[in-house]
Amino acid sequence: MRLTPPGHNSFIDELSIEALRQGLRLYAVGGCVRDWLAGRPCGDIDFLVSGPAEGLAVAVCARHGGTWQVFGSFQTVRCFTATGERMDFARFRRETYSRPAVLPHTEPATTIEEDLLRRDFTVNAMAVELTGNSYELTDLYGGREDLMAGLIRVLHKRSFTDDPTRIYRAARFAGRFGWRLSDDTAELAAQAIKDGIPGLLSRERLRNELVKILSEKDPAPALEIIAENGSAAFIHPWLRSLPDISSFDGINARIAALAADMGLEHGMEFIYGLRLSKKQSREIVELAGFPVKMHRRGSVSRTGYKGPVSAVSSTGISATDFSEAGIGVPDDKDKKDEK
Question: Please, which residues have CB within 8 angstroms of residue 141's CB and are 6 or more apart in sequence?
Fold first, then answer.
């Protein structure tokens, strides 16, 4: 099946020619392919390359100006042109997890099949070849069929154990698109939650998943899902959805609304447990209508929430980092192809 990207991205033609010149195969992969199949425009393209991607980034910057950076541990290259376009290139790779909930070890793979198998859900495990203007869809795991049925399905049984952030990502997709988890995927998620696997995530990674949910146009459906399946309790036991959460403008205001709903004691625990910067925490406390109190102590077990954490670090992320596009720090394994 051919899937021509809707609209015109001038970089696609240019990169297709450059990839051929360098003897590489170039694909669009993940969320952009999912959205194209659903008839939704998506100009934010993740590029997948059959070999080292640095040469493509070098060629783009040579023609258009800009900078590029290699994230070696994840086999990825990020390029910013002088006019502000951002392009992410990743070579085929495989992943292994030494234990549940840790960041994976990645190494180059030789086939696209290996790369697609490591992804979160079937709907995100599709690619379109761009070299030679082929536009041939690669769908090895039934992603198109699940997309048409509105189903979220993992690719293997250990998916949520390897990476429990996928539990929150599944809720986010279900809330955004009105999808549901397939029966087998729902069972695997429920078992991982029962086993306490999300509690093995760091507080920072849990916070990032909450922030991504709150960055949705309407976070309420996803918040309802994680409250119902029990995964919200690993962020805070009193976290629940608010029907009017989308009426609050900005991440800080939405966190403050959730905290205010919990009441003073639990709301303060919740805010400080997110480990934000002191400045941001103070702003949220004030927005929630709580007295400013910057030193609450307690502990968080790696097997679950155990109370407020110690005073937040002044090196936490800032409010300006709280856009969906800005959260994907490389060491957090966030992938744009799984947005």
Answer: 116, 117, 122, 125, 155
| pLDDT tens-digit readout, 287-339 | 999 998 644 544 444 445 654 543 333 223 233 333 332 333 333 444 444 67
Instruction: Supply the CATH number for residue 62's domain.
Output: 3.30.460.10
Please tell me whether residues 181 and 309 are part of one structural domain.
Answer: yes
94 within domain boundaries: yes
d(CA 207, CA 211): 6
Question: Is-contact 58 52, C-beta < 8 A?
Answer: no
Query: Do the domain assignments include residue 303?
Result: yes
How many other CB atoms are found less than 10 A from the CB of residue 110? 11
Q: Which domain holds residue 209?
A: 172-326
Pair (316, 258) in one structural domain: yes
CA-based torsion, 241, 209, 325, 277: positive or negative: positive
Query: What pLDDT digit, counting tens, does each position of 20-31 carry?
Result: 999 999 999 999
305 closest CA partner among 209, 214, 230: 230
pTM for the predicted model, two decimal places: 0.85
Tokens of 38: 């659903």
Same domain, 177 and 313: yes
- Residues 181, 318 within the same domain: yes
| Burial label, 114 (beta-carbon count in 10 A; 0-12, 13-18, 19+) | middle
In terms of domains, do 106 and 226 share one?
no
